[in-house]
Amino acid sequence: MIKMERTLLVIAGPTAVGKTACGIEVASSFGTEIVSADSRQIYLETSIGTAVPSPSELSRVPHHFIQTCSLRDPYNASRYEVEVVALLDSLFRKHDLVLMVGGSGLYIDAVCHGIDDLPPADPELRASLLGRFRNEGIAPLVALLKELDPVSYDRVDLKNHMRVLKALEVSMQTGRPYSEFLSARKKRRPFRILRIALDLPREELYDRINTRVERMMDAGLLEEVRGLVRYRDLTPMKTVGYKELFRYLDGELSLDEAVDLIMRNTRKFARKQLTWFRKENRYTWFHPRDTREIMDWIRARV
Length: 302
What we know:
Elements: E1 7-12, H1 19-30, E2 34-36, H2 55-60, E3 63-64, H3 77-91, E4 97-101, H4 105-112, H5 123-136, H6 139-148, H7 150-155, H8 161-174, H9 178-181, E5 192-198, H10 202-219, H11 221-226, H12 243-249, H13 255-279, E6 284-286, H14 291-301
Parallel strand pairs: 1-4, 1-5, 2-3, 2-4, 5-6
Helix pairs in contact: 3-4, 5-8, 6-8, 10-13, 12-13
């Protein structure tokens, strides 16, 4: 009998495309387990707004990194990389094929390629920079980034204050440009990696997104958000679905306006996810309902 090479199969794609259902079908067929690659489903306190798989879905196939840490516990791609690689070492003792399913491109890349070891955060410097942003806005911080790290200035989304603050924090803390830490050197993994991505015609994807938001509201998303007000300043609560309903609770938006904005921002987020995955030319793309073709593609390679 020929032993299969240890293989990590990534199933990626935009939000609401059908990754969970597809992943469960594939994992069930191959008798294996799923590692979630969703940077928000990892939190204990959230479920509706992060579209955590249902109890019936979770019961069909063992899942990992679903609601495993608290919003109060800082979590990032570096920690995810370390913990997932350690878990995979254990899972590959039981399975030759393991699935990673999700839409967080940075988390997926952290496991597939590795990410650079950044210095520990300096809470005082971070608080100082955040205070300056709140008092002065983003413009002076962007100007400072251009002075300290022109490469990051050219690369990062200058409208995303969290990205700008991160680059500044590392540059000021270490005396070295943040861009120097992003060497893009890929780490070697003791397993093979296959990647597929799911997509739908744009209008169909948008319809699925709108329907999902309606179902989240029917399932009690507003009540979930009310219960998370004390966490609203934490980074995970800047997620689409939560930030808009916080604005409703503050009286800035009507409920209908907030729901419409959730739909619009989710569609925008899906486009960003698609752009991320299309930049990686190792993905083979499928319609999420083409389960038979996906199975045949996997069997031909494992």
